[in-house]
Amino acid sequence: MIRRMQTLDTRDLNITSVSVNQQPTRFTLGSKHSFKGTPLDITLPFDLSRGQQVIVEVAYETSQSASALQWLTPEQTAGKKQAYLFSQCQAHHCRSMVPCQDTPSIKHTYYAQ
């Protein structure tokens, strides 16, 4: 069996709920670090077996200070009519846009809406 706790990296995200395989589950936010952000600790509602796949859903909002999300004003764009949002996830910025395992050594797929 594999541990029943999963930790994701976050920074300045407003976490409203977490579910695992459509089961609501407990979560806590750890102590905030100046640039690393805040760990999101998720208590899995069941034990895992090696190779078992799970779907973790995190409902959250980003903040205006999200370093991974940047805006160009309409005046800064080619058409000069609409603002433009772009993301920049190098270094440790991704955790300000999506709760994740923000390290090159761990890969996972995700879907955001």
| Quantity of strands, as a count | 8
Alpha-beta content class? mainly beta
Tally of DSSP helical segments? 0
Which stretches are poorly predicted, pLDDT < 50 over at least 5 residues? none
Strand order of the largest sheet: 1-5-4
What number is the mean pLDDT?
Answer: 89
- What is the overall shape? elongated
* Content of β-strand: 25-35%
Question: Could you explain the architecture of this structure?
Answer:
- It comes from Goodea atripinnis.
- There is one protein chain.
- The protein has 113 residues and is mostly beta strands.
- 0% of the residues lie in helices and 34% in strands.
- It has no helices and eight strands.
- The chain has a three-stranded antiparallel β-sheet, with no helix packed on it.
- The two termini are 32 Å apart.
List the helices and strands and how they pair.
Layout: E1 5-10, E2 14-20, E3 23-24, E4 27-29, E5 38-43, E6 56-61, E7 69-72, E8 84-87
Antiparallel strand pairs: 1-5, 2-3, 2-6, 4-5, 7-8
